[in-house]
Write a structure and sequence with these properties.
The protein is of the alpha/beta class and about 450 residues long. It has 3 domains: about 90 residues, Ribosomal Protein S5, domain 2; about 220 residues, Rossmann fold; about 70 residues. The chain has 20 helices and 14 strands. The strands form 5 sheets. A 5-stranded parallel β-sheet has the order 7-10-13-6-14. Strands 1-4-5 form a 3-stranded parallel β-sheet, sandwiched between helices. Helix 19 packs across helix 20.
Length: about 450
């Protein structure tokens, strides 16, 4: 169910309060009022002003059994995204009163207040074949998309980290209706004007200087979702992640585990769904030249260590895939006009792999391998045979993997097997997963 604030601290219920007051005087049809939901801010001139959060509010109204709603003219398109409701768009309080049988003079046609926001932008689909000379990174991207895995891209400036991240959403399948409605509801609460239900996964890329409030969300009187919640169902991309404040990165830890973000204030508590794929991109050092052939790194060793430590151990442990990128050589740049894998080809493989996973996890709350608890993969019918687990067990035994990392490698192995069309992971899939997680050869 889409998120909705349990208490309203703004002007959303202005219209409802006004018609309730008129109804107590007997001027309006009580039966008509009782079966109608009213949403809207009331101006001093009697006109209705647009509000944020119409989509989740009307979804909740429909779930409560209401069939008729009244909203400001500016919110009409968004209100009609909720099926099964008789939507009435009103320009003024007088128009609402007439709807409920008031005996008043015709108010005429006052100029309705409309939104000044631009229509919903359609994000262009960037093709994966634009990426050349990074075949291993493209393959890791496909595995990440197939299982919903979190990803870290490390490499010098110009290696293609941002280019890869922006093409990940293109190979993700469309959202189903429920998830698309949840994602749209969060954008509605954030104040975005919605004109259609977008089935493409959202791509949210806050600047590395964004504050904790910008990521988590907040507000003094009404909660507004931050970047973490707005990425629900899609991708959250943090470029130059090592430049972000440590507290900002650590704020990602709880939603990465629970799939939700909670905002606590003295007057309210609100919980937003936040099930997203995280992609972090970082340079190897402050100057970006450490380990780059032909360039000289000017950073002291201590500065390089501090820079790497900005991505804390707990955050790195929650990332499924760690990809180290190098700049494309002149030979590769001149030899290839296009990459070997197109977005259409990769997306077809991802859709097929996700369908295999969905069939396997049918009857459970999960559909993606990245969401399955480790206990399910380490025990019972999904437990891998000893020969397939051998390199993974050795890595855990010598301390190069934590138990959380062990579980993440198992999830990666299932995704690799789904892409290969295998019924269950074999030694080669576990080895591939170990390499993607830690760069460990099986």
């Amino acid at each position: 169910m889409p998120p909705i604030q349990k208490r309203w601290h703004n002007s959303t219920l202005d219209l409802a309060i006004a018609v309730a007051a008129l109804g107590t005087e007997g001027a309006l049809d009580a039966a008509s009022l009782a079966r109608t939901v009213h949403l809207g801010e009331l101006g001093l001139d009697g006109r209705l002003r647009p509000i944020a959060g119409v989509l989740p509010a009307l979804h909740a109204a429909r779930e409560a059994g209401f069939e008729r709603v009244v909203v400001p003219v500016a919110n009409e398109q968004e209100a009609r995204l909720v099926p099964g409701l008789d939507v009435h768009a009103a320009a003024s309080l007088a128009h609402v009163a007439l709807l409920h049988g008031a005996e008043i003079d015709d108010p005429g046609d006052p100029e309705p207040i409309r939104l000044h926001d631009a229509p919903q932008a359609v994000e262009p689909v960037l093709d994966l074949s634009d990426v050349i000379g990074q075949d291993d990174a493209v393959a890791a991207l496909v595995v990440a998309a197939a299982g919903g895995h979190h990803l870290l891209l490390s490499g010098p400036p110009g290696a293609g980290k941002t280019m890869l991240a922006r093409r990940l959403t293109g190979i993700l399948p469309d959202l189903d209706e429920d998830l698309a409605l949840e994602a749209a509801s969060i954008r509605s609460l954030a104040g975005e004007a919605l004109t259609r239900l977008d089935r493409r996964p959202p791509f949210v890329a806050p600047h590395h200087s964004a504050s904790i409030a910008a990521l988590v969300g907040g507000g003094s009187r009404a909660a507004r979702p931050g970047a973490i919640a707005r990425a629900h169902g899609g991708l959250l991309f943090l470029d130059e992640a090592a430049e972000a404040p440590r507290a900002v990165l650590d704020s990602l830890r709880q939603p990465l585990e629970s799939g939700a973000i909670e905002i606590h204030r003295s007057e309210f508590t609100v919980r937003f769904p936040a099930r997203f794929q995280l992609v972090l991109a970082t340079n190897p050092c402050p100057c970006g030249a450490f380990g780059v052939v032909g360039e000289e790194c000017i950073c002291p060793p201590a500065a390089i260590r501090r820079y790497a430590a900005r991505l804390s151990g707990p955050i790195r442990d929650r990332l499924d895939i760690d990809v180290n990128l190098a700049r494309v050589s002149a030979v590769d740049a001149m030899a290839q006009e296009r990459g070997r894998t197109s977005t259409a080809e990769a997306r077809a493989r991802v859709v097929e792999a996700r369908e295999r996973a969905a069939r396997r996890w049918s009857g459970t709350p999960w559909r993606l391998n990245a969401h399955v608890p480790g206990t399910w993969l380490r025990q019972g019918e999904h437990r891998l045979p000893a020969e397939a687990r051998a390199p993974l067990d050795r890595a855990l035994q010598r301390g190069s993997l934590t138990l959380r990392g062990y579980d993440r490698v198992l999830r990666l192995a299932w995704s690799a097997a789904d892409l290969a069309g295998a019924d269950r992971p074999a030694l080669e899939h576990v080895g591939r997963a170990l390499y993607l997680k830690k760069g460990i050869a099986a």
